[in-house]
Design a protein that fits this description.
381 residues; five-stranded parallel β-sheet; 41% helix
Length: 381
C-alpha cells in the first residue's frame, strides 16, 4: 500500500518464496523504526472438528517465512512473537474436554520450544500463551474499547463486515463476534505493546479475491475485520496452507483435528517407517524446502525423501508429555472405580504418570492415585 524501499523488498521476498501466497496488498511498514517485530498465532482446536492430534510439520511454513523476513529485511533488534491461542480452546468445553485441551496446549508448548531450539531460533522468538495475554491490563483496555465500539464511528469500508459482526446480523452470531473481537484485540495488543508491524498468517486459497474478500472464517477474514476497525496499521503476510497425505488438500498448517475420517497429516513425533508418501504431493516439495532451510548453515548433501523427513521430524526429539489418545485413555483410568459418581474434579497442576508420560491435573490426586495403583501406573506427586 505505502511505497517504500522496505515494503518493496518485503514484496520481492514474498513473490519469490515458494512458501508464501503472492499477495502483497497490505504492506505498510514504517522503516524509520529501529524495531519492527513479527506477530503470528497458532491454535490447536476446531469448533467443528475438535482438538488437534499433534503439531504438523507444516507449521514450518510460518516459522521459516517469519525467520527469512526477520533475518533478511528487518532491523537487527527485530524479534518474532509467537502466540499459542489456548484461551480460544477453553470456550464452551465440559470438564473432560477442558482437561484434554489444557494438556494439548502443554504438548504444543513443549514441541514449539524444542523446535525453536533445534533451529537455533530460541533467542529470536518469544512464545506467548493467550490465556496469559488476556489477563494483561493493556489487553483488557483494548478489548473494552473494541466491545464498546461506536458503530457510527466505524471507518468507511467497502462492505459492512465490521458492522455485521459487531451487531450480530447477516449470519454472524454472538459466537462469531466473540472470536473476531478477540482476534482483532490480540493483533492490536501485539502491535501496540510489542511493536509488531507484521502479522504473519496463512490462507487456504491463493487467488487475490479469496484473500482480500475472504468469508471463510480464516485469517484473511479476521484480518479484514481488523482493518475495518483499526485501519491500515499492520502489514499482512500469508503463507501456504498445510497439506494432507490423502489427497493433497489444503489444511490448517498448525493443527490436525481428529475429524473421524482419513485426512492423514505429517506430525512431529511420527515414525518415518510407518508412512507412505506420494512423491507428487505438495507436501513433498515443502519437505525439500524445509530440509534446505534446516541445512542452510552447512554443506547440504543429497538425501532421499525419507532421510530428509527423518531430519525434519528429529527437530522435535523430546516427547510431548501426552498425546490426545493417551490423555483420553488416562481420563478413562480415572473413572474406573464405581464408587466415584461422575468424573473427578480437575483443576490446574500436574501429576505425571511414569508409565506413559501422561500429564494429569493434580486436584483429586488421592482418588486418582488409588485408582491408578489398581491399574499398575505410578504417580509422581
Amino acid at each position: 500500500m505505502i511505497g517504500s524501499h522496505l515494503n518493496n523488498r518485503v514484496e520481492y521476498l514474498i513473490k519469490g518464496s515458494k512458501l508464501c501466497r503472492k499477495f502483497t496488498d497490505y504492506l505498510c511498514l514504517d522503516e524509520k523504526k529501529d524495531e519492527i517485530n513479527i506477530f503470528m498465532g497458532i491454535g490447536f482446536i476446531s469448533g467443528r472438528d475438535g482438538l488437534s492430534q499433534g503439531l504438523p510439520i507444516d507449521v514450518l511454513n510460518m516459522i521459516i517465512v517469519a525467520d527469512q523476513v526477520r533475518l533478511k529485511l528487518l532491523p537487527v533488534k527485530s524479534t518474532i512473537h509467537l502466540l499459542i491461542a489456548d484461551h480460544m480452546a477453553y470456550q464452551h468445553l465440559n470438564r473432560e474436554e477442558l482437561f484434554l485441551a489444557k494438556n494439548v496446549a502443554k504438548c504444543y508448548q513443549d514441541h514449539i520450544v524444542a523446535l525453536l531450539r533445534s533451529l537455533d531460533l530460541q533467542d529470536k522468538v518469544n512464545i506467548h500463551l493467550s490465556s496469559q495475554v488476556i489477563e494483561d491490563e493493556r489487553f483488557q483496555a483494548i478489548l473494552k474499547i473494541l466491545r464498546e465500539q461506536d458503530i457510527e464511528g466505524l471507518p468507511k469500508s467497502e462492505d459492512n463486515l465490521a458492522l455485521d459482526i459487531l451487531t450480530c446480523q447477516n449470519g454472524y452470531t454472538e459466537s462469531h463476534r466473540f472470536y473476531f473481537v478477540n482476534q482483532a484485540a490480540l493483533g492490536k495488543f501485539f502491535k501496540d505493546v510489542y511493536q509488531c508491524q507484521i502479522k504473519l498468517g496463512w490462507s487456504k486459497g491463493s487467488a487475490h479475491k479469496v484473500i482480500s474478500r475472504s468469508e471463510h472464517y480464516d485469517e484473511p477474514h479476521f484480518d479484514r475485520f481488523y482493518r475495518q476497525i483499526y485501519g491500515h496499521d499492520l502489514s499482512f503476510i500469508y503463507v501456504d496452507s498445510g497439506h494432507n497425505l490423502a489427497n493433497d488438500a489444503s489444511e490448517v498448517p498448525y493443527s490436525a483435528p481428529n475429524k473421524g475420517y482419513q485426512h492423514a497429516r505429517l506430525l512431529f513425533g511420527q515414525k518415518v517407517s510407518s508412512l507412505t508418501i506420494n512423491p507428487k504431493l505438495t507436501l513433498v516439495r515443502n519437505i525439500h524446502i524445509y530440509y534446505e532451510y534446516l541445512t542452510r548453515n552447512r554443506e547440504m548433501k543429497e538425501c532421499s525423501l525419507e532421510e530428509e523427513l527423518s531430519a525434519i521430524l528429529a527437530l522435535v526429539e523430546e516427547k510431548p508429555k501426552a498425546s490426545l489418545a493417551s490423555l483420553q485413555d488416562a481420563f478413562e483410568k480415572l473413572k474406573i472405580d464405581s464408587d466415584l459418581s461422575g468424573s473427578p474434579t480437575l483443576t490446574p497442576g500436574y501429576a505425571v504418570f511414569r508409565s506413559d508420560d501422561v500429564a494429569l491435573p493434580s486436584e483429586g490426586v488421592i482418588h486418582a492415585t488409588r485408582k491408578l495403583k489398581k491399574s499398575g501406573a505410578s504417580v509422581l506427586l
